[in-house]
Structures are given as C-alpha cells and as structure tokens.
Amino acid sequence: MPKFAAGVVKFQQEVFPENAALFEKLAQGQSPEALFITCSDSRIETGMLTQSQPGDLFIVRNAGNIVPPHYKGAGATTAAIEYACVALNVPHIVVCGHTQCGAMKGAMNLDALDALPHVKEWLSYSQAAVEITNELGKDLDEHARNLLLLEQNVILQLAHLRTHPAVAVRLARGDLRLHGWVYDIADGEVYAFDDANNRFEPVSKRYAAEVAKHLALHTHDHPAL
C-alpha cells in the first residue's frame, strides 16, 4: 500500500497540476468514445494499451471479459452496457481478451473450480467458446488451442452483446460499432476481428485506413510531431 499512496501523492503534486485543463473539463462530465470491456487481469492497462486519456474510455472489467446474454435480472456488466449505450451514447464497444488468461484456462476445466463456485458459474458464459475450441482445435497444439479459445470467447461475447436491447437498438440505428480484440501480452500485438472475413488480424492492418486518417489529422494539428 505505501507504493500506491506514494503514487497518489505524486499524482497530486506533479501529474494533476500538469493536466489541470483536462481535469477541469472532466469535472464537467464525460463523453467517452468507447465502452471497453476487458479482463480484470492486473497485467492489462487500458490507458497504456490504447494510449488514451482519462475520459476517453468507459471501462468494464471482469474475469474473462465476459458479457452475459441479456436477461431480466440486473448485473453490473449489463447495467454498464445499458448506461454506455443509452446515457453516454458511445459510438464504439470493444471486447478485449488477452493471452495467458487464467479465466479462459479455468473455463476449459470447470470441474476443477468447485472451490470457486461463483467463478465457475461466471465462466459458464464462455461454454460455447470452449465447445467450439474442443471441436475445431482437436489437432492443434496447446498454444494454438489456447489462442483459438481466446478468439472464440471474444466472438461469443460480441454475440452476447447483440442480445442486449440497448445495443440492438443502436446497431439497428447504425450509430454503434462492435469490435473484438485479443491482446498478446508477450509481444504487444493486438489482433482485431474482421467479421467480413471471419478472422483476426493485427490492429494496424484491420484499421489501417482509419489509423492513417487519424494520424494525418493529428500531424496537421501538431506539425512538429
């Protein structure tokens, strides 16, 4: 805890004063560009990964970056999705999985999680991804099977997202985009799902045109960069 307390002191003495204008703006409200659903794993740092600022992302974190299919009962993830779509009107939702995910390893062997009943129940929302992996990954080595599971879980959670009324309405209206990502912790690569071709490819390729447009605008605004 002293490490984190020291961090707060540094934030208050150095970071906050240097970004006073940003925090003054944020104090008036938020208008995030995306709902970012990712794993609770401590190795995932969303701001560092996306190079985003406070206020850019509305973040939901849970074990396995899971989105339960919509049902009548309230849940934290469901409520956050609804709020992001209706109140904040975010134009993008990202579901981001990651390599070496303990939740997905657990999902592959739910019978071993009897001592963690809540975790076991939660990970059942990934069961379809597990069964697809078992079927399509019969001849794959362990690394390839694990990657297939991560990808299939992201695709499954995107499907679950579409069952949420707030998401369905926005998709029908045409002002919301869904994105599926897998982050490789070891090499920093991020793969994005291309639903038209049913495959994952590097973010740099998947969003090449959009990244180029963004960088061109950014360079125009800041010619010294």
Automatic annotation (TrEMBL):
SUPFAM superfamilies: beta-carbonic anhydrase, cab. It comes from the Bacteria. Zn(2+) binds at residues 39, 41, 98, 101. The keyword rRNA-binding does not apply. Binds 1 zinc ion per subunit. Transmembrane segments: none annotated. It is an enzyme of class 4 (lyase). Its cofactor is Zn(2+). One of its GO terms (molecular function) is zinc ion binding. Its EC number is 4.2.1.1. Pfam families: Pro_CA. Keywords: Lyase, Metal-binding, Zinc. Gene3D superfamilies: Carbonic anhydrase. It catalyses: hydrogencarbonate + H(+) = CO2 + H2O. Belongs to the beta-class carbonic anhydrase family. PANTHER family: CARBONIC ANHYDRASE (PTHR11002:SF76). This is carbonic anhydrase.
